[in-house]
Fold this sequence. Notes:
The protein is α/β, with parallel strands linked by helices. The protein folds into 2 domains: about 150 residues, 3-Layer(aba) Sandwich (Rossmann fold); about 60 residues. It has 10 helices and 7 strands. A 5-stranded parallel sheet has the order 4-1-5-6-7, sandwiched between helices. A two-stranded antiparallel ribbon has the order 2-3. Helix 1 crosses helix 4 and helix 5 packs parallel to helix 10. It is globular.
Amino acid sequence: MGKLERVKAVFWDWDGTLVDSYAFLHKTHNHVREKFSMPAFSVTEFGNYFGKPREVLYRDIYGADNIDEAKGYFETFVLAHHDEIQPMVGAARLLGVFADTGLPMGIVTNKKGVLVRKEITNHGWEKFFVCPTVGAGEAAADKPSPAPLLLALEKSGLNIEPSDVLFVGDTENDVLCAHAAGAQIAFIEEDLSKHAIAKEYKASLMFRNCDEFSDYLLQSA
């Protein structure tokens, strides 16, 4: 499959790559901010925080003294409203195309792992991910550190090199994580202005959406 010939495993970011969580996370953080009598974020304001490492995000939004309480409010709301999180358009198709290659796949995310595992189940995607999910706080540091991707590879038991891994994501954190780990990079981002970071770090593949990625794979088969 063209540039995938050297790939022996695929690891995916979650929010913004496979699930369309931006609006949901915006709503959830505004729910939490209301608990602290903070003004609601506009959609644009929330964009300044989307994709940040979990510990940095909570500190910057709620203040260091409120981190644990804010996490509690956040997780309670998310667990009660999981059915609102929808897949990205074309995500199920893309996962199916990759599954047909037989490549083992897993998730590396800055969202808490217990939440992502529930979301995987909600979408019926357990069959796609044979490698363990690595979520926020499970490695020595979250993305953009390479630690969670390297931990996911270690826990997978695949006995392959990081250079054999393709990491698929949509943010600078994902690109930096993959680059530092020595993995190959696939970048999915509708906003072409954000492709500069992927080009700088020599992403192997760049697509505007999941369907464009699927079409590339099918045409390269």
